[in-house]
Amino acid sequence: MSQNQATRTEKDTMGNVEVPADAYWGAQTQRSRENFKIGGETLPRPMIEAMALVKKAAAIT
Question: Checking phi first, is residue 6 left (phi over 0); if not, alpha (psi -120 to 50) or beta?
Answer without folding.
Answer: beta
